[in-house]
Records
---
Amino acid sequence: MAAYQLQINGKKINAEAASDMPLLWVIRDIVGLKGTKYGCGIAQCGACTVHIDGSPVRSCQIPISTLSKKAKITTIEGIGEIELHAIQEAWIEEQVPQCGYCQSGQIMSAVALLKDNPQPTDEEIVASMNGNLCRCGTYSRIHQGIKKAAIALKEGTSSPSNDK
Amino acid sequence: MKHSATSRRFFIKTSALAGVGLVIGLPKLQGEALKSITKNLPPEFINLEINPFIIIRTDGSITLINPRPDMGQGSMQAAPSLLAEELEVSLEKVTIIQSDGQSKYGSQQSGGSSTVRGLWYPLRKAGAAAKEMLIQVAASRWATSTDLCFAKDATIYLKNSDKSFSYGELAEDAAKLPVPKNPKLKNPADFTLLGKYNKRLDIPSKVTGKAVFGIDIEVPGMVYACIQHSPTIHASIISVDDTQSLLVKGVQKVIRCKRTMPHRQSDAVAVVASTWWAAQKGRSLLNVKWDDGQLALTQTTDAYFQKAYEAAKKEGVRHEEKGDFLAKFNSASAKLEAVYETPFLAHAPIEPECAVVHYKEDGTAEIWAHVQGPDGGLADAARFLGIDQDKIKFHVPLLGGSFGRKAYHDYLSEACFLAKELKKPVKVLWTREDDITQGPYRPGMLSRVQGMVANGKLTGFHHHAIGESIVGQVFNGLKPDEADPWLSGELSTENNQYQFPVSKVSWTHVKTDIPIVWWRSVYASNFGWGQECFIDELAHLAGKDPLEARLAILKDERFRKVLETLAEKANWKEKLPTGKGKGLAIFASFGSISACCITVSTSGKGIIIEKAVSVIDCGHYVNPDNVVAQTQGNIVMGISAAIKDGITFSNGKCDQTNYHEYQVLRMNETPKMEVHIIQSGAEPGGVGEPGLPPVAPALGNAIFAATGIRLRKLPIDISSIS
């Protein structure tokens, strides 16, 4: 066990954890943020996606000891804290979630995509989202939601990523 | 106010409770059930509970109880909408809570696509009865006729006046009235909520990470358990060496435990720790020796299918027959027979199996488990813990997918077992590997099909279903000479409505130790493949277009409308270039009729699934957008089941371990989709499952249309076909 200082959603958080504990379990069971989900533990499903310095990563694959002290971690709880992100708005508009379990990861991937590429093509959307599984089969709505959010951001009718 | 507590209890017995039996259609409550209601109700609710599904408080706040857990199918909106439509309240202004398994809520099982069709009348009647009681109180206060009062937005108004009472103002007196036995239901033409597009109220919490799933439950003092199951599922333990596991920081205990399946029990070893990560690490360091018995030889999918193909050469047990099929088949000049195969499949919901159980020193328990049926979960938990149901407080959080899996309570049995040993709250969480390798699975099945044609028409069809029986294995309820009774729901001529002069459904039970259970659309997911591809084969034998051949033997107007609509929406008659093809299929299940048309094209690198168009007639429905969403989900899951590798067992063990080996469909493989709903106005049918069965056969038929290759075995490796 060791003490780690983390920056999650703009807050400094101290966590005691085994050095090999993946960030996913630190976030969920030590820090207590339950929005980030476990699905496979081997980076196949994307349910555990969070941002490190704005880039999407599979938190199940990052032992806590390998994380830089400066790393800025954003979880689903850090997206749209004050005002919903355009992606979240679009997800509600398109009624994307069914069970909703994979959607934190889907949203984290989608937010990161639009941050890097505000007007993605269909192919770019698929390429960025293909690592996120949805067993309920909401893919077409996810795709549509991203296109809708991209338009909203372009027209300035929705709030951009507010990663801290 | 305190002294009136006794008389309040009296009211719930005499008025509100009387309504439970009569209005909601539940068994009349007495004895234990009655006691449990008065005991567990918060005192402030007691005389205001108009019936078990609606609670109106004097401050005007309204709580509706959803009796069917939400696993993504939308029951958290659907069931309360049925109440709200008749009660005349807006869902945005009420609190919706999940039922807790108590018998006063009746059947609470999300399954069999039964939520809306099962609750369409009971919940509407409950809402209408409450509304009539509120109107009665208002009318009597105004000394007027109830005809001059009307309900709107949680308020009773007096016509042609500015007088009104909020529901809260009327609730206390309304609870004293007898519950109307036959409240008047609204004419569907007057619905403002049912059948209309409405956004789901659970969705905002699912885009912010705030929705609480089974896996998210955390209670003070909780420990975590990760369980080593037997790789061959049913092996018994020879020895456990836990030396290395106990050295892991955070690991507290290693306990031998039991996994209780409905039909048998298996040995397992639990590692209990202060974090789940430590528990799973401890598990990885266990050294368990297992006695596999003969499982390595007997528990393989090859052995199972070999037995099934042997059975396909023989006649089965007759389930139903019209005319003398065999005689006609033998004498027919134009006939076909074939065997179709579907694999075992895992449900693989992205949220794995999980339960939190706290068994307390005083012999009571509190449980949080994402079961599909709170009532069944509660009953099983009571059995697992060896205590009465009324000693258990049962909570059902959201299910992160299920597709049938979480109605199988083996994970709950483990948490109960450990909770009793530990006397503190314990969370059992399965790994993905547990989920994939331990089952239960959708059974692999064979369809041996025979049929004939004459004068351009299909004249006979025999479907011989072969495989392990859910009734037989899970419920141990099938006699050797009996056909699985669940076949009648899906394979009978009454269900498929094909008007064959002669037809037959038969069955052979092939047993396996591989645990099986219902999977989205149950046997329809297996037998739709054999039925609808073979109908296609017969159509070609008869020299007819597959659409026309089906219409020629369908009289039922709803079936015809579904097919005709599909043909129009999918542009069935369109002339396609070489290498492109369309296939269609129709299948009725769970009270709804669904058809699908898939367009494929060949490329140098295999088959491309370009588009899927589905049509569903589910009668009355709650939310058209949710019907579309469920049908889209069924197209995705149906294609996944058709083209992704199934579950196989070699040497007694599951060959797949996680999503890299048991792959499910991804975004790049999802075709363009269109869903059309038939406005039949018929009695409500299911929505969560009926869209799936026609998908695989539509794909198989499309591949035949594009390539001339007739595929009879799932899964299809589309990359290898050109």
---
Amino acid sequence: MEQFVDFSLIDWSRAQFAMTAMYHWLFVPLTLGITIIIAIMETIYVRTGKEEWKKMTKFWMTLFGINFAVGVATGLILEFEFGTNWSNYSWFVGDIFGAPLAIEGIMAFFMEATFVAVMFFGWNRVSKKFHLVSTWMVALAVNLSALWILVANAWMQNPVGMWFNPETARNEMIDFWAVLFSPTAINKFFHAAASGWVTAGVFVVGISSWFLLKNRHKEVSRKSILIGALFGLGGSVLVMITGDGSARQVAQVQPMKLAVIEGLYEGEEGAAFSIAGYAKSTNNPERPYEKEMHSIKIPKMLSLLAFHEFNAFVPGITDLIEGNDEQGIISAYEKAIRGKKAQQMLRQFKDTKDTNPVEHARLKALFEDKEWIDNYFRYFGYGYYYDEDINVFRTNIARLVPNIPLNYWTFRIMVGLGCIFIIVLALALWWAYKRKLEGKKWFYYVAIICVPLVWVCTMCGWAIAEVGRQPWVIQDLMPTVSAVSQVSVGAVKTTFILFAVTFTILLIAELKIMFMQIKKGPKEG
Amino acid sequence: MKKQALPYRIFRFYYEGFASMQLGKTLWAIILIKLFIMFVVFRIFFFKNFLNERFDTKEEKSEYVIEQLTK
């Protein structure tokens, strides 16, 4: 592996992608939720005819407009990177990614472009009802837009519904519905979308609390808090349900991710959930990844969360690397040998194309043989970690373990903050409903502090999803080492800096304009 | 009064919408500058498609990727 992999190129390419994806995600979650909040407020306006609701609708719509304008198209940078920095990956998945992204482009983008215009230009130009329909269509479109991206991401985490064509070296979609309705995709979409709804709820409650702190727009703020908190709480419930679904999916298709999130080295029946802890290296040369975990635990909770059974076996990192015959877990070493075999078959398939048609046909049949696919091709990516020298092999295999502290702590920060938001939103809802928010300065400050924290929370969620699946770009099939383009490290560093500067300027612009508009507050008319 | 043609009404809708914008003008300026930087500067000078730059046909691209995946 060391002889053909430039780790500095991989690290910079990953850093570049992570940075652009994170900046892009700064803009997305608010859009997902606030469009629905705006649509709810406008619905109340249309039903009651009270100008106060129109004023509220227009105020939050302006903040959405700022976020939308600054954030729109930032995701396209990721597509540029696929073609330039991740060309092997881009080629390998082309057909699978193409379909969802094309649907996203055609359907959601055009819906947004049409109805966003009516939403902003249509006041007093179209009927109230048509305007309301347009607002709801924008909310639907931005959430649908996220659906297709998340379906594509879910396929990378759990590749289904495809066949690898050895002639073209591309995966071809054979079952669109399997890709769209894979449990990973369903959970991922609702989990990410609902996290955006919580983000918007917390944002609305936080900004409204700032107005209350300043003794401004009291009734508008109270009503905004009512809607924002109720909607945010609904989002929180969905986040919990889909979080549970995601955990069970991860336990089945990405057990290593679950093990590193928990810092679980040795698998066990009735596994405990770790609340907080630390790991100490065992200095075992045969197991360079191995550590000793010390933590405060809740007995049997992990088995319950992952498999809905108190005594279910949860595999640990050691089980997944060394194998566990008793539990029917194949070792990563065996997977690497099988993956290497699949790679050799692909190579032979290419080499025999013009020289040995009989052998070429036999090899092609292998790539259509379900049993061979299930036993060899499914471990294709592990083949990169194989080496004839056992010491090098061990070092390579240790690379299959993702960064444990990062995954362990981001998960706990995400869950901890999620729980805090539920409490804050519930209190906000109750006090706003009972008209008892007045004078609770400490609560206003808490709600305001929650605004940046909700972004920290959602970023942690993505860090777990993406860092937790390392080294895989496509689970078990393609690791980052084989996905990256052979471009110069200098070129990647240059674009990294360019993006960092551009996106930082955009973020500063967004914050500046947003703060300015918030200071102005809701206006009449 | 005679009703104007639909394309004209759509044009007027957008024209008047853009003309009456206040904060929107700043936002559109941000969008246009951003799109220029992304599609003209980044895309043309820094983000050439790796495979398209090196190979003309799909066969050549496949050969190259298989080479990369199996080395």
